[in-house]
């Protein structure tokens, strides 16, 4: 009937479809009828105006693939099978589009390989997103820590200026009246200087407070520099892993990067209940620090962890710390059988860890006992976390 529609099981108007089916109107071929679509497209120069030509055929024609070859393949239904990694399976060679493919025995084999790639690709994408989120959080934490350390380093560099304030308080103490919260003096260069005071302290106590702050700043200077150097190296390594994670494609590559992230303790695996013996410190809640001299410092966070740290994890030559006369975490400085080589700054660091994890952490002056772990024992039948010790020495920690 001249290509017009005679009858249909259902009439469809132009408002519902691009291919209306109406009585007596011309029949419009489906857009995915390649043989007819390409034959109808031959006379036109603008393939974009013809809906029936697939995007791949359009690209092939635009890149110089012989139109006659395409038409002959359609006419004879003679096709090959190619797999293009990351792109899909096609019955035509796509080298003219700049793609490198592998010819397979059948289109089914090409499709199977492509869908295998898709499954792995989706798996990698899903897990990559989760790992990236974790690594980005670690990156932010490192950046914040470096900013705080930079501020502390600035304070350390100003140790001399802090000490001078204490000296000036003593030099001008006769001008300080009870209850003063600030004093104005002239520094060594003749410039006016305002020095904050604590109104409830004497001039000597205010000066001592500045002297102690300056001393702490000096002592921490080398420690801060070491911490900054370690964090900067860690941050560079972390950013390198993040860059590699963005570009990986295979699951094996992803597993390698995740193992690297696990090794540097940048990740946590949710939903993976490891056997207790495979967890860090056998599953006990023990925190780990690094002293200014590079010694490991371990701290138990509860009674059972204290027991494990003191009786199982530590060695006889390690140094054991506890706040005197107060509830305190057990802290162990691991000496590698060389306790005599531990410096004063390392002892003070471990003592401060004990104070920070004790009931005396808000006190301004705290005494911390320490001894070799060989002189520490748990009384028979005592509750978890109980220990007695001998041959101790004492460090006084100022808040």
Structural class: alpha+beta
Task: Strand order, main sheet: write it out.
Answer: 6-7-9-8-10-13
The geometry reads as elongated
Low-pLDDT regions: 270-274
Largest sheet: 6 strands, antiparallel
Strand content is 5-15%
List the helices and strands and how they pair.
Elements: H1 34-41, H2 55-62, H3 67-76, E1 82-84, E2 88-90, E3 102-103, H4 107-157, H5 159-171, E4 182-186, E5 192-196, H6 203-247, H7 251-263, E6 286-290, E7 296-300, H8 303-313, E8 319-323, E9 331-333, H9 344-356, E10 365-372, E11 376-377, E12 388-389, E13 393-398
Antiparallel strand pairs: 1-2, 1-3, 4-5, 6-7, 7-9, 8-9, 8-10, 10-13, 11-12
Helix pairs in contact: 4-6, 4-7, 5-6, 6-7
Structure description:
This protein has helices at 34-41, 55-62, 67-76, 107-157, 159-171, 203-247, 251-263, 303-313, 344-356, and strands at residues 82-84, 88-90, 102-103, 182-186, 192-196, 286-290, 296-300, 319-323, 331-333, 365-372, 376-377, 388-389, 393-398. By secondary structure, the chain is of the alpha+beta class. A six-stranded antiparallel beta sheet has the order 6-7-9-8-10-13. A three-stranded antiparallel beta sheet has the order 2-1-3, with helices on one face. It has a two-stranded antiparallel sheet with strand order 4-5. Strand 6 and strand 7 form a beta hairpin. Helix 4 runs antiparallel to helix 6 (203-247) and helix 4 packs parallel to helix 7 (251-263). The longest helix is centred in the N-terminal third of the chain and has 51 residues, at 107-157.
Name the descriptors.
elongated, six-stranded antiparallel β-sheet
């Amino acid at each position: 009937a001249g290509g017009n529609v005679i009858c249909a099981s259902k009439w469809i108007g132009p408002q519902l479809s691009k291919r209306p089916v109406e009585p007596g109107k011309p029949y419009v071929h489906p857009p995915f009828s390649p043989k007819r679509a390409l034959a109808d497209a031959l006379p036109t120069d603008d393939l974009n105006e013809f809906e029936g030509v697939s995007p791949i055929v359009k690209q092939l024609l635009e890149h110089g693939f012989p139109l006659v070859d395409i038409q002959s393949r359609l006419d004879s239904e003679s096709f090959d099978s190619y797999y293009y990694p990351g792109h899909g399976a096609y019955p035509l060679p796509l080298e003219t589009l700049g793609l490198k493919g592998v010819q397979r025995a059948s289109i089914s084999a090409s499709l199977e390989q492509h869908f295998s790639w898709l499954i792995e690709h989706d798996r990698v994408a899903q897990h990559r997103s989760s790992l990236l989120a974790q690594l980005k959080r670690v990156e932010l934490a490192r950046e914040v820590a470096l900013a705080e350390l930079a501020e502390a380093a600035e304070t350390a560099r100003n140790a001399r200026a802090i000490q001078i304030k204490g000296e000036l308080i003593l030099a001008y103490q006769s001008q300080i009246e009870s209850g003063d919260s600030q004093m104005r003096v002239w520094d060594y260069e003749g410039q006016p200087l305002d020095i904050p005071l604590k109104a409830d302290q004497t001039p000597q106590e205010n000066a001592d407070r500045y002297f102690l702050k300056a001393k702490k700043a000096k002592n921490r200077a080398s420690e801060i520099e070491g911490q900054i150097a370690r964090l900067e190296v860690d941050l560079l390594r972390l950013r390198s892993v993040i860059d590699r994670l963005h570009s990986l494609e295979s699951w094996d590559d992803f597993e390698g990067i995740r193992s690297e992230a696990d090794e540097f303790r940048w990740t946590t695996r949710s939903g993976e209940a490891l056997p207790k013996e495979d967890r860090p410190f056998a599953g006990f809640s023990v925190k780990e620090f690094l002293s200014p001299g590079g010694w490991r410092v371990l701290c138990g966070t509860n009674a059972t962890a204290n027991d494990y740290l003191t009786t199982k994890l530590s060695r006889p030559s390690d140094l054991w710390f506890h706040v005197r006369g107060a509830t305190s975490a057990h802290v162990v400085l691991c000496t590698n059988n060389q306790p005599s080589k531990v410096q004063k700054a390392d002892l003070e660091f471990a003592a401060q860890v004990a104070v920070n994890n004790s009931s005396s952490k808000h006190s301004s002056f705290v005494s911390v006992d320490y001894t070799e772990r060989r002189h520490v024992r748990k009384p028979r039948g005592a509750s978890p976390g109980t220990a007695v010790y001998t041959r101790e020495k004492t460090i006084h920690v100022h808040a």
